[in-house]
Amino acid sequence: MGDEISTLMNNNKNKVILLRLRNNKTVRGNLQDFDIHMNLTLNDAEDISDNKTTKLGTILLRGDNILAVSLPDEES
């Protein structure tokens, strides 16, 4: 299963992903890198919680704070 997740994440580098965090925040940004602990580096990140958008820039999210990852639809 780890290989499947790694392949999926590699296929979505430099694409916009949506993350739901443990603190009920929602973050959107361009996936730049990740590691085996699901620590993610995002560029052009934005907090889109509470019906407002706050620019965050480049951020590193620790994997244990991530509840869900939404990847872009694959193009046919």
Task: Give a verbal description of the structure.
With 76 residues, the protein is mainly beta. The protein has one domain: SH3 type barrels. The protein is 13% helix and 47% strand. The chain contains one helix and five strands, in the order H-E-E-E-E-E. A five-stranded antiparallel β-sheet has the order 4-3-2-1-5, with no helix packed on it. A hairpin with a 4-residue loop joins strand 1 (16-21) and strand 2. The longest helix is centred in the first third of the chain and has 10 residues, at 2-11. It is globular and about 35 Å long.
A few lines on this structure:
The protein has 1 helix and 5 strands, in the order H-E-E-E-E-E. By secondary structure, the chain is mainly β. The chain has a single domain (2-70), classed as SH3 type barrels.
Total helical elements: 1
Strand/helix succession? HEEEEE
Question: Mean pLDDT score, rounded?
Answer: 93
The end-to-end distance, rounded to whole angstroms, is 24 Å
Number of distinct beta strands: 5
* Low-pLDDT sequence parts: none
Q: Which percent range fits the helix content? A: 10-25%
Largest sheet: 5 strands, antiparallel
Q: Looking at CATH, which topology would you report? A: SH3 type barrels
- Spatial ordering of strands, largest sheet: 4-3-2-1-5
**Globular, elongated, flat, extended or rod-shaped: what is the shape?**
globular
Strand content: over 45%
Number of domains: 1
CATH architecture group name: Roll
CATH class reads Mainly Beta
- Gyration radius, to the nearest Å? 12 Å
Structural class: mainly beta
